[in-house]
Design a protein that fits this description.
135 residues; mainly alpha; 81% helix
Length: 135
Amino acid sequence: MHIDLASMNWLAIISATAAAFILGGIWYGPIFGKAWLNEFGFSEEELGKRHPAKVFGTAILLTFLAAFVMAVIIGAAPNLMRGIHWGLIIGIGPVSMFMGINYVFEQRSVKLFIINALYATLSLVIMGAIIGGMG
């Protein structure tokens, strides 16, 4: 498989990265922030001790890589429905299922799995819609 970096829609990839990152801030903030903290057993104080540049910088980089891979998967003939389709397949399929496997072995709650799996799937659908729609 050959990936032609010059033909990639970098604006779409960057836009998809930004959209998923913003969704994460809303998802793990006002929507599910307290539930997520409770399920992991974190406190606001513990989260405040993390190095923000390291955490958010790594999160942005990983989100960008996910958007790049989505663009590769959607391919050379992107469209809105193809992007949404692939976002759902990847989010509900391998991403959520492997996350679920990890949660079973780590003995994490179903509630935490749902919060995180829905975020991953919704992010991939949004990324797919942006990348496909801007194609």
